[in-house]
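In response to reviewer comment 3 from the previous cycle, which asked for concrete evidence that the modeling workflow produces usable outputs, we include below a single protein chain processed end to end. The sequence was submitted unchanged, and the resulting structure tokens are shown without manual editing.
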Amino acid sequence: MINQRRIDIHISSVISVDVYDKLKYPSLAACERSKLKSERVKASCVIASALTKIEFDEEPALPSGSPPVKRIISYTAFPVLTEVKVIRDKALINCEVNLSVLYTADNAEESVERCDYTFAASKIIDVNGISDNDIPIVKLRLGSLFVKTKSSAGEGINSFNVFGELSAHCVFIRQFENTYISDGYIPGYKCDCSYDDYKYCTEGAYTSESRTVNSAVAVPDGIKEDLELSVDISDEKAKNGKLSAKLSLYAVCRDGSGSLIGVSAGDVLEIPLGAYGSAFAAININSYDYTISSDNTIDVRINVGVNIFAYDCISVKTLGDINAAEKENLPPALTVYYGKGSERVWDIAKRFSSDEELIKAENGIKGDYTENDGIIIVPRA
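The workflow returned the following structure tokens.
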């Protein structure tokens, strides 16, 4: 015999983990009597990350004139990120929670009613190493939600106990300039140089904007009345110059026969990253509304807040070590060299065991490259 009082629920969970670690690249910083080519790059990195929960505990009352509650049918909520402030070693997260409760009224008709609430939540989190100019990327999701009825003496049930927590996944990005040694030599010696690859994230670009997304829920058995709709965004991924996310919708409605049913639908949200290939990103729901566009379709319009830090990964050559293999004959005080346009002055200096700045000064070269084909005077270093 089937147990009429028990509902077995089986839940499958997927855990997604982002791991960040510091990488070190060995590079020569100094060498006696050597000439070293120093390069500067604008880069970015994840300076810190944090996963925290924001708890809430509220007691909202029914709106004035609403019939009292007999039984809760369902409830749903979504958080709205309103503000993130970063100071030294701390971050403040301000948000709102939008709650919807569907219930049967304690009246003769046992009508199905819905009430909506909005309340604020916030938290200050400690994050070692962050500072005012770091860029925060915050994904805000509903972690857990519990809604219970709360009785009032002699007045029936006209309020709820609402408690739960939000999950906030925070990534803090820092833009900076970095210096590395790309090449080197020792004047008067034949040198064997070893090189390594230095991989870094480019300076990137940060954007924060609101977008409107359109989707729909199909109801095969027809729609008589739509009672409640919930929307969720998950699984953000940046790949091949595109940001994508999974959009999940769930509607509680009365079908053509008047029966209460639940219908789910899914969609994919895609946002191009422009000239960049990768990104740290968060897509948070700001608001949504819906209309019954036909007997079998609920059209949904969702406003989302999109925070994206887009970047590229680049690998450059760094100098690992210099070995002075063999001493060369002393070069002449001046060497006449016929150079080509757009030739790097450093390469000329290395070839003739000279000095880059001396060649620039002798020939009036202002940049790092020669301008035209012609004679270049190469002084001895």
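Residues 356-363 form the longest helix (8 residues). We consider this sufficient to address the reviewer's concern, and the full set will be provided in the supplementary archive.
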